[in-house]
Amino acid sequence: MSFVPLAISTLAIVLIAVGALIGLLIVLGLLGARARDRRRAGSWEEAVRSADAALAQAAASDRGWQRELMETAARAAIDDARPGWPYDTLHLVLVDDRPGIEEDRAHFVAIDENGQEARVVLCREGDRWSAERVD
After folding, report:
1. CB-CB contact of 125 with 102 (8 Å)
2. Tens digit of each residue's pLDDT (9 = 90 or more) over 26-53
3. Which residues of 66-84 are buried (b: 16+ CB within 10 A; e: fewer)?
4. pLDDT tens across 58-92, in order?
C-alpha cells in the first residue's frame, strides 16, 4: 500500500489560515455584541422610557395640559380594566396634540414589579380626560 502525499501549495495554506482566522473573529464579534446587548437591555429600555416621559411631560406642560388630571384619569382606567392590579410606576410616554382639543391623545404606561405593562390611551373631551382604551 502506498500513500500519495497531498500536495497543497503554500498559498493555499495561507488562504485557509486567514479564512479560518476571519471566521473566528466574526463569531467572537457576534458573541460579544450579543452579550453586550443582554447587559444593556434593562438600562437601555429604562433610558428610552425616561426620555420619552420627559419629552412628553415638556410638551404637555407647554400646552397647558394638567398632568394631575391626566394621571387621575389613567389610574381610574387601570382600576376599571384591571381591578386590584398593583402597578409600581405610571409613565407618560406619548402626547398626541392635534389641532383642536377633541383629537388630543395621551398615552400612559403602568408597570408592575414583574415588568408587566398596561398602556392607557386617554382622549380629551373638552377640559376632561377619559380612557379611550387600556391594553
Report:
1. yes
2. 999 999 988 887 877 666 577 667 767 7
3. eeeebbebbeebbeeeeee
4. 677 656 577 888 899 999 999 999 999 999 989 88
- Here the cell at position 122 is 386617554
Closest of 90, 93, 88, 89 to residue 53, by C-alpha = 93
CA distance 129 to 87: 21
- Strands 105-111, 117-125: pairing is antiparallel
Q: How many CB atoms lie within 10 A of CB 90?
A: 17
Dihedral angle over CA of 94, 65, 118, 42, nearest 10? 50
Residues 22 and 133: their CA atoms lie apart, in Å, by: 52
| pTM to 2 decimal places | 0.59
| 43 vs 29: CA distance, rounded Å | 22
Three cell numbers at 73? 384619569
C-alpha cell at position 107: 398615552
Half-sphere exposure in the Cβ direction for 60 (13 Å, CA):
24
Tell me the CB-side half-sphere exposure of residue 58, using CA atoms within 13 A: 5
Identify whether the C-beta of residue 117 lies closer than 8 Å to the C-beta of residue 111.
Answer: yes
